[in-house]
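Hello Y.,

Per our agreement to keep a running log of every chain we model this quarter, I'm adding this entry. I've kept the format consistent with earlier entries: sequence first, then predicted structure.
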Amino acid sequence: MLEIKAVSRYFEGLAALYGVNLTVPEGKIVGLIGPNGAGKTTLLNCISGLDHPSAGEIIFDGVRIHHRSPHRITALGISRTYQNIRLFNDMSALQNVIVGLHRHGRSTLFHSLFAWPYHWHEEKRLRQEALDLLERFQLAPVSKVRSGNLSYGDQRRLELARALATRPRLILLDEPTAGMNAVETHDLGEQILRLSAEGITVLVVEHDMALIGQVCDEVVVLNFGEVIAQGTPNEVKQNAAVIEAYLGKEELHDQPA
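Predicted structure for the entry above:
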């Protein structure tokens, strides 16, 4: 479904990504891991249109998207969450989700001004769909609360609910469990598995290896902008290059045999 071919991204001559090749098969959950500064968020930014590669191609379902704008990429069926939460803090939880759903509304300015029954019925439908998404993430009790006043864990779940509101075929998750405790992390892992069961493809950036092992079919490891390993969670966890990237050569050699 998603093909990343020899993608590089340079910032003032420094390579944040260098010759990255990556495939995300349809219906699978692929983990993207690596030390801080490895280029993981940069890659997600290039996929979602917030940034563009300096070289290489990004192809989604046969369509080249590496120079498209974010709203056009969203229209193709790609949605995402962010490492740093990006909600409309002055809007309620419900309103945040409704914003994501309005891309699928058919009502026009004419309908809202002169065909108000049609407009009202559509607004009612979108509101119910938004409420269903909040219920899915146990957020229905805080539907009227300003998102800026929600707990950190609730904000994380709300951002995922809003991403789902665009009805994506591929969802990009950038450290979705950051700041969550072990129980919250496991529960969100169950939600990610549910996405896959519903036919949504997932690319997840995450540092929590317990979550990676819980949900991922395959894991890709970045280090200094390059892919250094790829395989199942167990294969990657035992890869010497991966251990070295996380621990460093000295610490690796000091580990007991």
